[in-house]
Amino acid sequence: MEAKSPAPPWRLAEVWSDTVDLRQLAWAIGIGITISVAGFYAASRWLRGMVASPELAHAYAMLAGLAGCVIAGVICARLFPPKREVIEHTSTHDPAWRAEVLAELAEQPGGLGTLADLPEAVVRELKELDLYDLFTEPPAAAPAAAPASSPRAQGASKEALA
User: Fold this and answer.
1) Tell me: the pLDDT tens digits for 33-48?
2) Which long-range contacts (CB under 8 A, 24 or more apart) does 140-146 make?
3) Rounded Cα gap, residues 92 and 94, in angstroms
4) For residues 42 and 99, what is the distance between their CA atoms, to the nearest angstrom?
5) What is the rounded distance in angstroms from the CA atom of residue 99 to the CA atom of residue 137?
6) Angle 54-79/22-48 helices, nearest 10 degrees?
7) How far is CA 149 from CA 128, 146, 153, 154, 162, in A?
8) Cα–Cα distance for residue pair 154/162, rounded to 1 Å
9) Mean predicted confidence (pLDDT) in 122-151
């Protein structure tokens, strides 16, 4: 199977915190409308003769339309894979960023605390994530040119903690 070339950047958009190709999004919307409306009308016609009241037939037909939305979602998920790129970095990737985050955590009420205060399960998890050594190192002094004056850099570090 041939690998498709990625969509040009101008054709990508962020929808609900995910990156999508606008052309594929339009196709997915069309597929969803087609399948759900077709399911609604088919069920409405089929149920008209089977159910005593037309209101009840209409309600069941709406359920069939909703089921069509779910089916369309499954079809579109298989046809159009996500466009996101997952980039994984280890905790040792950027020492300056780590020092900034640790300094910010130390400024919080209660400070960083010590590893001895942590339950054994948390210590195990820190070791599994290769973060244990980060907290055993002596705290580094905050960089002289700390980005306190830069709201963009400060927001980025707070975003990473969230």
Assistant:
1) 999 999 999 999 999 8
2) 140/99, 140/102, 142/99, 142/100, 142/103, 143/96, 143/99, 143/100, 146/100, 146/103
3) 6
4) 62
5) 11
6) 150
7) 36, 8, 9, 8, 21
8) 13
9) 65
In the chain, the amino acid numbered 55 is E
Record the pTM: 0.49
Tokens of 41: 């009308």
* Residue with the two structure tokens 């779910």: 70
SS3 16: coil
**Cβ neighbours of residue 6 closer than 8 Å, sequence gap 6 or more:** 83
3-state class of 60 per DSSP?
helix
CA distance 61 to 69: 13
**Residue 86 in tokens:** 């997952």
Q: Which residues contact 122 (CB under 8 A, 6 or more apart)?
A: none
> Which tens digits make up the pLDDT trace of 1-45?
445 556 676 788 888 877 788 999 999 999 999 999 999 999 999
pLDDT for the residue numbered 4: 59
**Average pLDDT, rounded, for the chain:** 77
Alpha-carbon span 92 to 157, nearest angstrom: 16
